[in-house]
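Can you please make up a whole protein chain along with its backbone structure tokens because I've never seen that pairing?
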Amino acid sequence: MPRAGLLTALAVALADQASKWAILQWLQGLGHNLTVTPFFDLVLVYNRGASFGLFQTDSPWGPRLLSGFTVVVIAGLLIWMWRTRERPLAFALGLIAGGAAGNLIDRLALGHVVDFLDFHVGAYHWPAFNLADSAITVGVAIVLYASLIGKRTDRTVSGPTGE
């Protein structure tokens, strides 16, 4: 099972980096943001914080601390992935690790993470995010589902004697 998770992590990190490279080339060439639909824009945001802009900092230590923390998290996810025998869990851990690795590459190479997906309703904007953030969110949702709700479906309904 670890192989499926590792392949997922690699695919996510590569897709994330490719999408960021393409967006950087395209939006910097345009010189402005691009409205795609009335509720979705492609934007160029440089996130110096964690997911969804949390813990923003201009301190030179910010990216280093977040990078160090991310390395520890990825290592923990890889150990967990190595120990699991459940393919859906390995896949979910691969999504999280790959997303974390994609953002880590940005932070190490650029000092910030490139975000570009901007959903909004009227004047309210969800914080801009990227494919790595999406993979992390989906991976966490799968892990939570498997650990909280998935366990319930494994139980069979039986009488007081277990029959």
